[in-house]
Structure formats: structure tokens, C-alpha cells
Amino acid sequence: AEIKKIAVVAGDGIGPEVVAEAIKVMRKTEELFGLQFEFEHGLFGGIAIDERGTPLPQDTLDMCKGSDAVLLGAVGGPKWDNNPKELRPETGLLGIRKALGLFSNIRPAVVFDCLKDASTLKPEVLEGTDLIVIRELTGGIYFGEKFRREGAHGQEAIDTCVYNVAEIERIVRQGFEVAQKRSKRLASVDKANVLETSRLWRETVNRIAPEYPDVELEHVLVDNCAMQLLRRPSSFDVIVTENMFGDILSDEAAMLTGSIGMLSSASLGEGSFGLYEPVHGSAPDIAGQGIANPIATILSVALMYRLTFGYEEAATAIETAVKNVLDAGHRTGDIAVDKSKAIGTTAMGDLIVAAI
Amino acid sequence: AEIKKIAVVAGDGIGPEVVAEAIKVMRKTEELFGLQFEFEHGLFGGIAIDERGTPLPQDTLDMCKGSDAVLLGAVGGPKWDNNPKELRPETGLLGIRKALGLFSNIRPAVVFDCLKDASTLKPEVLEGTDLIVIRELTGGIYFGEKFRREGAHGQEAIDTCVYNVAEIERIVRQGFEVAQKRSKRLASVDKANVLETSRLWRETVNRIAPEYPDVELEHVLVDNCAMQLLRRPSSFDVIVTENMFGDILSDEAAMLTGSIGMLSSASLGEGSFGLYEPVHGSAPDIAGQGIANPIATILSVALMYRLTFGYEEAATAIETAVKNVLDAGHRTGDIAVDKSKAIGTTAMGDLIVAAI
Ligand SMILES: CC(C)[C@H](C(=O)O)[C@@H](O)C(=O)O
Ligand SMILES: CC(C)[C@H](C(=O)O)[C@@H](O)C(=O)O
């Protein structure tokens, strides 16, 4: 196959450790499926702040722009938490999303058999839960004008939430399209009883809905959605929502599966380009110990194969390998019941590579 | 005791039914505790739209302003869902909050012994959960300027989130004060890594925190809070947050207790004035059938006694009566395990009145 360029931004904490295993998996699929990857590494997040004085150096951004897909580890840590805004890892994250036009964040929330008991939800409630949250990622209150001013009652802070029809339409269409490939149910989440942006959102959803007659659409208010995710998680298929609501609901959905250490994510723009990363964070407390769970990152590679490259067979092979290794009882510390039998990051990566 | 004026806005759906039981309870406490109430009724919500062409008629508002406390049932229903904004029940709700200066919404999320199993969370996770969400209610993105305009990419909608230091300080102080009376733990929830309003919020919290040295303070990002509520609900004591985040998190917290039909709420302004209402909605599907559960509204009266009037003894008497009636096995349909043994709204009200 054509050589695909992968920009690797491993980031902070356990980022480099889990990314290394994901790359091993990619190398293995090169042999087996006749794929070819070229990896380039760039500084990003806290480490970029330390070494370059900015969380998103221009050469890292250029490298990403010149690539076919980006593999991200994780960013952040207490070291940078009290930095001014421009010197914070999250600012790099927001910057890379905007600069690469990654308007769609796709987060599958699935339950792993071996982790059913890790959820705080009752197993019978969780049964059959398999949903995807599609979050708008480059608009809304995250990117609107923000400032301070002196007001009549002391200092005031302002954030602006802005959405235009085109921004809403492209993410909502993606929601419908993903739903069409799954169980054909789409929940559009907004706060149309209060927000003007939500009213425009809902009008737009209703306007394009007739083009997807096979998809069953429901409008859910964000507060109600936060409740329904708890009450009937398995009734959701695809959830599409704006940036801030998606931030909250995708984390709630991830947590209720009990599988947060295992969940992958994709951030997509126009065309097939995408950025792939595990949902979990940089876990500074266990960084450098070789005990982090690489599965979420490895599953993010499967997402990349499927969504960016159309390597369906190789994607499925990775997912099956992960499943088989788990079924055989292998566990990293975070998901082990008997912690004394836990294996390390590299061992887990090796087992998955061997199982492909 | 001095005569207290209670403005009653029963609203729509089951509102009038549950409010009637709450008033019966108040009458009973008049005799027993030497209290005196004068009730005035006003139109509000959908019924006010139907009869007066506005969800919040001026005379209703004047009546509330002239009262010592407001007892609200519930508003809304499918009948008005597609109305233009000015003719929607929610608009009345937002209007009354603003007009009465009710900047603080207090929502206890407690687990009722008899409803432990109704939660979708595992009992061992829920064990000991007893938290209060304090939500800022008259600021933020709910009340900032909202408008549409033509932009380069079609129509645009804008919502503005605004907070000034004074608004943040008064709600946060209330958080600290409520925490001081409880387990002395306060979680302040924001999105300071993204929003300017959240950064001002966090600065303000940190500035006044030294005045409450006995309270243990943690800052929690809103997405993380949505997760932690699921993972460790019992570790929270008091949560204080801004309007939009509070809307989402208070509903999530209510749902995880499994007791949503039983939860009360208070909305407070400066001084002792307050508006009290059940957390549940107007339940149009069961309205008029005499089967609604009046307990949340009755418990809202207990909150009113405690927070507005300082009638501690009578408040406790109501709460104890509710507990005793439940312990004796009486249930309305929504909380009955054996639905055939369920009792109606009036019967439940009578039992509680008798138990006081
Ligand atoms: C770190 C933060 C800026 C980011 C966000 O809010 O988008 C994170 O929570 C996420 O969901 O990727
Ligand atoms: C009906 C709606 C406007 C309201 C809100 O969002 O505040 C409701 O959800 C609530 O929490 O009281």
C-alpha cells in the first residue's frame, strides 16, 4: 500500500509509554496486511512548554499538517497546572484542534466484558450499552471571544458561545451518517429551551432530518440527557451535541461503562484526516513506571485504520487481538482484579502484537 | 407566630395535585406548632399562557413579591412545547427567578432507604451519598445577551456567558456557609482550563477561601465532576457551581440517588425569602389521575420552614413524618414495588398529615 505518514505527538506522563505500544502494533500490521507507515515525532503539551516555551510549536503543527493522521498520547500534569494560559498543555490541545480543523470528536462508549464489574452501574442496567458520542470540537463557547472588563459590580468575565448554520450542519450530518451505519438512532442534545445557539442547532437538525428518513431522531435536553445516560444507557446509539455539552456528556458516558482506561477517540476534520488518542489522561502519578494500560491507544489505532485509511481488515484484527488477550486473562494493573498478577505496558503490547 | 404570606403557584400537570397536599401539611403544622399561614394563589406557567397569554402575569409576580415565600408545583407540558419563546412555561420560570432575585438554587441529593434499589448505581457505591448542589441561578449563559446575525457562513446564533465578581462571591460564600453546617467539604466546579468566566470564578473562590479555614475546598472541572459523581458520589458534601453546569450536574446527582420523585429544592435570594418546589416536573402523562407522589413537594415545605422561617422543629416533624409513612410501607405508584398496593396522592398526603 501507499506509505502513510503518521505524526506522533506522544505528549506527557504515560503518553510516550502507551504510544510506543501502539506503534509496535502498527508495525506488526505493516507486515501482516501489507501496510506502510512512516512515523515522525513532534513535541506537544507540557514537554513542548518545557523544551520550547509553547505547548504547540510551529514545527509540530506543520508536521501534523503534512501527515495523513496524528497519533496523540496524552498531555498535561500538575507541573503546568498553574501556568498562565499560553503556557498550559490544554491550550496546545485546543490549538491543534482548531489549526487542523478537527470539528468532530468521536468517542465510543462501550462496555468490555472483563470490565463489567468495574462500572458503578448495575450490570443489568449497563447490559447492551454501546454508544457513540459525537461532539462538535472547534466551535461554541470554547472558541468564542473571551475577555474581562470592569462592570458596575466589579470585574466581569465574558465567554461567547457562537455557532453558525454551516458548523452545526456538518457535525449533525456526521451524526446522522454514523447512526445510519449503526442502529439508526440519533439523539441530538441541546438546551433549546434556554440557548439561542441551541435553538439554531435544533432548527438545523430538524431541517436536515428528512434527508435521513431511516434514522430515528430524538431531541434531548442536556440536563435530561445527563439523567437518561444513567437511567437507560443502553437505549442510546449515537449522541450528537455541541462542544461544551459534549465535553461533559462524553466523560459521563465513558465513566459509566467502567472502561475508561480502555476507550479510544477520533477527532476528524473534512476529508479523511484525523487525530487519534486514548480518552484517558496523562496519569502523571504512574508515569515512567511501565505499568500504564496501552489498550485505549492501541484501540485508537484501530479507529484510525477504519476512519482515516479504510483498513477495515487490519482494524478488526487489532480489536480481535485485544479481545483475545483480555479473554485469556491478561491485565494491566488498572484493570486487574488480582493486582499481583498484573502485567506491564510492554508486556501487554507484546501480547497484543503476538495475538494479531 | 406572625402570619406568613405564602404565594402558591401550582402551575401545570400534577402541580396543583401535589401542592394541595403540601398545603394540607402546612395547615396541620399551624395547629401543632402554633404557626400561621395565609395562602394566595396565582397563575403561572402553561395555565397562565392559556388564561392570560403570558407565562408570568404581572399580578402573579406582584403576589410573589408581596409574600414571605413561594410554593411552586411544576410547569410545562407538550401543549406549549412548540410555542415561541415568550409563550413558553420555561420563560416564566426564568423570569420569576430573575425578577425575584433568586440567585441560589439548593438541591439536596439524598438517598431514601426505601428507594436504594431504584438507583441504577450499585448499592455499595451509593452508600452514604448525601450531597447538596448549590447552583447559581440568575447569571451566566442563561441570562447573557442572546441573538442571531448573518455571518460569513450563514446565520449565526450567539449566547453570552457573563459573571461578575459580586455574583460569584455571593453564591460561593453560600457554598462555604452551607458546607460549614455540614461535613465541611466544598467542591467548586468550573471549566477554568477553557472559560474566562470559570477563571474569574476560581480566582474568586481562592480569594475568599481563607475566610473559611474549616472548610476543605477542592476545585473540580465540570467534565471530571460528571465522572466523579458516578464514581464516588458519597465523597461529595457540597458542590457549588455556575448556572449551566449546575443545571446538568444537579440533574445527574438527583438521578443517581434513584430518588428523583422525592427530591426537594429551594431557590433563595438575599435575605430569607425563597421559592420552594419539587425537583420533578409536571408529569403531564399522569396529571389529573390522583396518583402523583406529593412527597417532594411536602419535603420542599420542610426546606421552606428551615431556610426561610427558621421553623426547625416543624421542619423536622415533617421530615420524620415522611420517613415514618415510608417505613410503614406506604407507597405511591412511582415508588411502589408492588404497583397493585400503591396509594394515591391524597391518601399519601393524609397519611403524612396524620403522622406529624
Ligand atoms: C483539557 C480540556 C481543554 C479538554 C476539553 O475540554 O476539550 C478535555 O477535557 C477533553 O475533553 O479533551
Ligand atoms: C426548564 C429549564 C429552563 C430549567 C433550567 O434549565 O433552569 C430546568 O431545567 C431547571 O433546572 O429548573
Automatic annotation (TrEMBL), chains A, B:
Cofactor: binding details: Binds 1 Mg(2+) or Mn(2+) ion per subunit.
Binding positions (substrate): R97, R107, R135, D223
Pathway assignment: Amino-acid biosynthesis; L-leucine biosynthesis; L-leucine from 3-methyl-2-oxobutanoate: step 3/4
One Pfam family per UniProt: Iso_dh
Keyword Coiled coil among record annotations: no
GO molecular function: 3-isopropylmalate dehydrogenase activity
Enzyme class (EC, first level): oxidoreductase
Keyword vocabulary terms for this entry: Amino-acid biosynthesis, Branched-chain amino acid biosynthesis, Cytoplasm, Leucine biosynthesis, Magnesium, Manganese, Metal-binding, NAD, Oxidoreductase
Known EC number: 1.1.1.85
InterPro entries documented for this protein: IsoCit/isopropylmalate_DH_CS (IPR019818), IsoPropMal-DH-like_dom (IPR024084), Isopropylmalate_DH (IPR004429)
Cofactor(s) the protein requires to work: Mg(2+); Mn(2+)
Binding site for NAD(+): 77-90, 281-293
Site for Important for catalysis, residues: Y142, K191
Function: Catalyzes the oxidation of 3-carboxy-2-hydroxy-4-methylpentanoate (3-isopropylmalate) to 3-carboxy-4-methyl-2-oxopentanoate. The product decarboxylates to 4-methyl-2 oxopentanoate.
Name of the protein in question: 3-isopropylmalate dehydrogenase
Organism (species): Cohnella suwonensis
